[in-house]
Amino acid sequence: MNDYRYDNRTIQGFILSAMAWGVVGILIGLLISVQLWAPAANFAPYLTYGRLRPAHTNGLALGLGGGAIFGLCLYIVMRLSGRPLLFPRLARAQLWLFNVTIAAAVLSLLAGYTQSNEYAELEWPLDLAVVVLWVMFAANVFGTIARRREPQMYVALWYVIGTVIAVAILWIVNNLSIPAGLTKSYHLFSGVNSANVEWWYGHNIVGFFFTTPILAMFYYFLPKSTGLPIFSHRLSILSFWSLVFGYLWTGAHHLVYSPLPDWLQTLGIVFTLFLIAPSWGSVVNGYYTVGADWSKMRSNYLTKFFVIGITFYGLQTVQGPTQALRVVSQLVHFTDWVPGHVHMGTMGWVTMVVTGSIYYVIPRIHGTTIYSERIADVHFWLVLVGQLLFSVTMWITGIQQGAMWKATNADGTLKYTFVETLAKNYPYWHTRTLAGLVFAVGMLFFVYNVLMTIRKGRALEGSPGSSPAAAPVA
Ligand code: HEM
Ligand code: HEM
């Protein structure tokens, strides 16, 4: 039976939208991975690599990530506040505006409209639409928390609040630009200042879009789905405040060996190293939580999504600071190592936790159980294998690329031409497409399982014995 006390319809709308944009983004990812080794796959001017790559990153970050953040964070806020959303109609309007904005974003990127700043490609009218969406989201987050019936604020709420505030600041500052018509604008900052602001934003948008909201989901859905209380609330709060404090100083690690002043690069690197501590605070907290009963890994199909998810977060947050070191950066920067890092985070950490959380939420919204745990297991293994193959392949080719670019002959001339290094990438790029295919099939199993669970729930709603009282607390 559908339980409307908690605005579940809107939550489900965001989740389904996130899944739909996720499928679009992943299919585009597959196509651009092919375009890198088969130029003939650049079918038309609006379907070339240069246009599809930002459609892939924006479609997945804003579409999959944004939809999941809106849906799952609002779900968490309502449960932890013990009340429905303060502005339910606003949330429904936000759902529609969200889908229109993402569709317009993808189409405008394919049409070639771009501000040319990575992860901030959208032109100013769409930037403004995102600001409106974020204000709508913030109104419900802060309004609902302010009127909460639960006196305590569990750490997941702090992570949601941190996300709302930080993304608002980052988005507005980096998108400050001077419009030159409806479809063109210029960054307010120029030269090195532009790069500095862009990467202050670029690193933190990853942090506050792909880390803090995902940690909110992790801290809420791991104890919920395993029935094990979080190991240490004190550690969770300590990790939260130190993560938020540390993150905002680290952007300069993207500009190592650039014209940015040396002291700024060093400051960025030092804070980057510091980030290991709060990140691992959450990793350790997660392990000790499940450590109370490791048999949950076998008996509860959801546990492995969260445990493997936090494991990749742990690996990611050791790899990230290592990459920031000058000695490592000079080898891996500009190489395929970086997409290897990126996709361990996005495919391993973000997708694992988001899909695990959706598996938890959808059956509860409909007062039923998951359609098939077996399909969820198949989905889990395909996504895991696909992601590992993707990342490991990119790390190997990245080191090879870096080493070949730097290799010199005895007389100091370069040993390899750029094209020679490129040709060496081909076998790895083929393997990446295969890895992406395995991952994509895994995600299609996930989508099927969720849709069939909704169908099962709707069939139950229509059955004679169903009543609102029969619904579990959603
Ligand atoms: C403590 C945590 C982390 C640190 C310190 C860190 C650090 C870094 C560094 C230094 C780079 C630049 C590599 C280079 O270009 O030479 C980088 C790139 C990147 N990282 Fe991380 N990382 C962390 C966690 C994550 C997570 C959890 C994700 C995603 C879920 C992520 C996504 C990315 C992305 C998307 C880029 C590519 C940016 C670009 O377009 O150049 N990182 N990271
Ligand atoms: C079938 C799965 C996927 C495939 C085949 C794929 C493929 C690719 C390719 C080929 C690139 C360009 C790499 C380059 O610049 O050389 C890329 C970049 C990127 N992808 Fe994916 N991707 C997939 C899934 C995902 C997912 C699920 C996410 C996010 C949730 C994601 C986020 C990103 C980001 C942020 C970048 C930019 C990385 C950077 O600048 O270094 N991808 N992807």
What does this structure look like?
It is a single chain. The protein is globular, with a radius of gyration of 22 Å. It is mostly helical and 474 residues long. It has a domain at 309-474: Cytochrome C Oxidase, Chain A. Helix 2 packs across helix 7 (212-226), helix 3 (88-110) runs antiparallel to helix 4 (124-146) and helix 8 (233-247) runs antiparallel to helix 10. Strand 1 and strand 2 (185-187) form a beta hairpin. The model is unreliable at 467-474 (pLDDT under 50). The protein has helices at 8-35, 49-81, 88-110, 124-146, 155-174, 191-210, 212-226, 233-247, 262-274, 276-291, 296-299, 303-324, 326-332, 337-365, 373-406, 418-462, and strands at 177-179, 185-187. Bound molecules: protoporphyrin IX containing FE (2 copies). One protoporphyrin IX containing FE binds at residues 118, 206, 210-211, 253-254, 272, 275, 279, 316-317, 320-321, 323-324, 329, 332-333, 338, 341-342, 345-346, 349-350.
